[in-house]
Structures are given as structure tokens and as C-alpha cells.
């Protein structure tokens, strides 16, 4: 048993809405559970339509102020927010691990990285350049100036509650836009800590607002709201399609980062043991709850057995447990729904002829833990080969020729990420041309 990394019992506060520079509780709340224990640790306030209307109206008022603040001043304020995130990193990391489950070191790294992201965008604020276009006549000057779009409705997921939110917030603020952030109900407090850092840095009232609630209710109301001019969403492909369509109904700009089903191609000339170790680390990071997680392992037939041997060893040596404990490398899944989804994917694959090389089941104790899993001899028809698992399951198939590998990698309509391991410069060059990273059924 590994020792606990925190000497005293960590605390967790209920999370409120943040509207027009004021934190507010609501009568309607949802429980927040620790994924490692399944125990409720707090509550999160839920917004109703009146709250959303106030947030949208506040964002419009804030936008009219924020857009006129010089870029240099916006940059300075954002750098103050970054510094506050660094100063508060230890407390925020504990909060994130309590509600999200990831190992404390990963929570700390995500929190500190948010400061870097804020500072990067803060520097971009000072370089919002336009351009001059040569005209056809001497009496005309054609100048392009960049103007902020307006209030942004941003929707962020629970798997990286600060990492995803900070990219949307910082990008919008640097451009002079205001934000209504719909945070994740599963992991609200760490997201709220990010918002608090911006507020404490001196952000004007209304420029950044935070709401929680029933996702469909919030998205339907905010996307249609006349104050909102742009949509930013990170989440599942199915939901992204719905939100993009609704944004289109209202002629509003949309930026989407949706799901993936990343292929990992391993060629016979690669360093197979090293590739297996690297892919295992990437696969089981955040229990596979990463949109760019490698999922379909496409291995050249002649080295498949060697790859499986090394990958199984790597998977079996991963320490799975409570993220607050020392030495933990893989956390619990986010909720019971994810556990059920993993069990269904494994059962379907086995029913179609796949073999479980390691893992394949829920761990028999408290918490939403699922074993690091490797499935081999998985047919293309299995659900795991066609649906994003978003969990700690790797599925192996084999190829004999380069064209077979490319065909399987490009078979699905997903974009987002591809992994490849080879020592051949020629193969590397060809992969860059042949891998299709453009999703064919939606925009990202």
C-alpha cells in the first residue's frame, strides 16, 4: 500500500455560479463525487434560464468595456491571473484530484500549465496586427483591422477541467471578447478556481461569467441568445454536431474540438520495446479519457507478438489508485457510466472473437476503477474499432503491407491525432502525406 501524499484531510468547497463579478448559490444543486471513492464531496449550483439571461446580459456589458481596454493593459491583467494560478497551484491541484481523480502530479502540472497558456495569449494580445491591402486606385486605402467578435459561449469538458477552459478563456480575452463559460458539473471547483484567478487579477465585471447546469438546457438557451456571438465547444462528436448545427441556425461562428479514435501504427523496423512503453503511457494517461488518446493499435504482423509482450508488461506495472496517494499513475474513470461503457466494449469485442491479453474488467473495490486493458485479434466490426472508447482500452489489429496500415488508419471519419513508430525516413515522409487527419463528417 502506498502512503498518502497529503498529511491532513483535504477540504472541498461547494461551487457557485459567477455572474457579473458575483459568486451566487442557487437552490438547485448537483452532487459532486470523488471518482476514487464514489463519495459525495460537495455540491455545484445549477443555473436556470434567468441566471443564463443575466450572464449573457452581463457579458454584453462587460464586452463593451473590455473591448476598449488597450491590448497592453489586457496583457498585463492576464499575466497577473497567470501568477495567481502559480501561487495557488498546490491547493487547486488537490481540489482537481478530489473531484476529477487524476494523480496529484498531473493535476499540479495541468494547473501550472494553465499559467503558461495564459501568458502565451497575454503576449499575443500585444501583437494583434492588421494589414494594408494595395488598392486599385491611389485615392483609396484598404486596411484590415481585427475586431473582437463579441460575447462567447464556451463549453468545456471534465477530463481536463482547467486545461480546456483556459484555452477558451485566454483566447477570447486576448481578442477583447467576453465569455460565458459553461463549466463541467463533474469537476466544477477547479474550473471555478481558474475563473477566480481572472477575477482577482482585476477583470472588469461581466467579462467572464461561469455557469453550470443541465448541458442541453444551457447550450440551447445560450447559443440562441442574441447577446452571444460565437460558440466554442470541446466534447463528444455527437454533441458537437448538435451544437454546430444550432450555431448555424443563428449564423454564429463556432469552433469545435471533438472526439477522436487515434490510430497508432507500429512498423517492424521500429524500436518495439520502446514504442510499447511509450504507447502504454499515452494510452493509460488519465485512464484513457483524452481525446487524442491512442486507441486502435495497428501493428505489423511480424512484430505483433513482441509488441503485445512488452505492452502487457507495461500495462500490468501501472499503479492504479486514488490520485491523492503516492505513486499512483492511473486514476479512476469519471463516473459509473464510463465503467458500464468499458464493460460493454470489452464484452462486444470478445463476443466477436477478440482475446483479452490483460485487464478487461472493473477492479473489485470502491471507486470507478477499470483495469488497464489490451484486446488482441480484434476484428474491424467490433465496436471498440469504430467507437471512441474514452477509457483505458487498447485494441490491436495487424497489417502486412504499408497500404493495409494506411487503409485501416484512414478507415474511420475521425481526425484529431495519429501515432506512428518507424525508423525509416521514407516511411515517415510517406505517412505525412498519406494519413488523413481531416475529419470527413464534421469540422474541428
Rg, nearest Å: 23 Å
Count of DSSP helices? Answer: 13
Tell me the domain tally. Answer: 2
**Class computed from helices, strands and strand pairing:** alpha/beta
CATH level-4 homologous superfamily of the largest domain:
Aldehyde Dehydrogenase, Chain A, domain 1
CATH fold descriptor of the largest domain: Aldehyde Dehydrogenase, Chain A, domain 1
| CATH class (first level) name of the largest domain | Alpha Beta
Helicity level: 40-55%
Give structural notes.
This protein is α/β, with parallel strands linked by helices and 444 residues long. It has 2 domains: 17-257, Aldehyde Dehydrogenase, Chain A, domain 1 (3-Layer(aba) Sandwich); 262-434, Aldehyde Dehydrogenase, Chain A, domain 2 (3-Layer(aba) Sandwich). 40% of the residues lie in helices and 17% in strands. The chain has helices spanning 49-66, 71-87, 89-100, 104-125, 163-175, 188-200, 215-224, 237-249, 272-284, 304-316, 336-351, 402-409, 425-434; strands spanning 17-19, 22-24, 29-34, 39-45, 131-133, 142-144, 152-155, 179-182, 208-211, 230-234, 253-257, 262-266, 294-300, 355-358, 373-376, 393-399, 419-421. The strands form 5 sheets. A 6-stranded mixed sheet has the order 14-15-16-13-12-17, sandwiched between helices. Strand 8, helix 6 (188-200) and strand 9 (208-211) form a beta-alpha-beta unit. The longest helix has 22 residues, at 104-125. Mean pLDDT is 94; it is low at 440-444.
Amino acid at each position: 500500500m502506498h502512503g498518502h501524499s497529503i498529511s491532513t484531510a483535504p477540504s472541498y468547497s461547494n461551487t457557485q455560479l459567477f455572474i457579473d463579478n458575483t459568486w451566487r448559490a442557487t437552490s438547485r444543486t448537483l452532487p459532486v463525487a470523488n471518482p476514487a471513492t464514489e463519495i459525495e464531496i460537495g455540491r455545484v449550483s445549477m443555473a436556470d434560464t434567468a441566471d443564463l439571461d443575466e450572464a449573457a446580459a452581463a457579458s454584453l456589458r462587460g464586452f463593451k468595456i473590455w473591448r476598449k481596454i488597450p491590448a497592453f493593459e489586457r496583457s498585463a491583467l492576464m499575466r497577473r491571473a497567470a501568477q495567481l494560478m502559480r501561487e495557488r497551484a498546490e491547493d487547486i491541484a488537490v481540489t482537481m484530484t478530489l473531484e476529477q481523480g487524476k494523480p496529484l502530479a498531473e493535476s499540479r502540472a495541468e494547473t501550472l500549465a494553465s499559467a503558461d497558456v495564459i501568458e502565451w495569449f497575454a503576449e499575443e494580445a500585444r501583437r494583434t496586427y492588421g494589414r494594408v491591402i494595395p488598392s486599385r486606385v491611389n485615392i483609396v486605402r484598404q486596411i484590415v483591422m481585427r475586431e473582437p467578435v463579441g460575447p462567447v459561449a464556451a463549453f468545456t469538458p471534465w477530463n481536463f477541467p482547467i486545461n480546456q477552459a483556459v484555452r477558451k478563456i485566454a483566447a477570447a480575452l486576448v481578442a477583447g471578447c467576453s465569455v460565458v463559460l459553461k463549466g463541467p458539473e463533474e469537476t466544477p471547483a477547479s474550473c471555478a478556481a481558474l475563473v477566480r484567478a481572472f477575477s482577482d487579477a482585476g477583470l472588469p465585471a461581466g467579462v467572464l461569467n461561469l455557469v453550470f447546469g443541465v448541458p442541453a438546457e444551457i447550450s440551447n438557451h445560450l447559443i440562441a441568445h442574441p447577446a452571444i456571438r460565437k460558440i466554442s465547444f470541446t466534447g463528444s462528436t455527437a454533441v458537437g454536431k448538435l451544437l454546430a448545427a444550432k450555431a448555424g441556425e443563428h449564423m454564429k461562428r463556432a469552433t469545435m474540438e471533438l472526439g477522436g479514435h487515434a490510430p497508432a501504427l507500429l512498423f517492424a523496423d521500429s524500436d518495439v520495446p520502446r514504442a510499447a512503453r511509450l504507447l502504454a503511457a499515452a494510452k493509460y494517461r488519465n485512464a484513457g479519457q483524452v481525446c487524442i488518446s491512442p486507441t486502435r493499435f495497428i501493428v505489423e504482423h511480424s512484430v505483433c507478438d513482441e509488441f503485445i509482450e512488452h505492452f502487457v508488461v507495461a500495462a500490468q506495472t501501472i499503479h492504479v489508485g486514488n490520485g491523492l496517494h503516492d505513486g499512483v499513475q492511473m486514476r479512476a474513470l469519471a463516473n459509473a457510466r464510463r465503467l458500464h461503457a468499458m464493460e460493454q466494449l470489452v464484452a462486444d469485442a470478445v463476443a466477436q472473437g477478440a482475446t483479452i491479453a490483460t485487464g478487461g474488467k472493473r477492479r473489485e473495490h470502491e471507486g470507478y476503477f477499470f483495469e488497464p486493458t489490451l484486446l488482441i485479434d480484434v476484428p474491424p466490426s467490433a465496436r471498440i474499432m469504430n467507437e471512441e472508447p474514452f477509457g483505458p482500452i487498447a485494441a490491436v489489429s495487424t497489417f502486412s503491407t504499408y497500404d493495409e496500415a494506411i487503409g485501416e488508419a484512414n478507415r474511420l471519419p475521425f481526425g484529431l491525432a495519429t501515432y506512428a513508430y518507424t525508423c525509416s525516413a521514407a516511411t515517415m515522409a510517406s505517412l505525412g502525406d498519406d494519413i488523413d487527419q481531416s475529419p470527413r463528417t464534421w469540422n474541428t
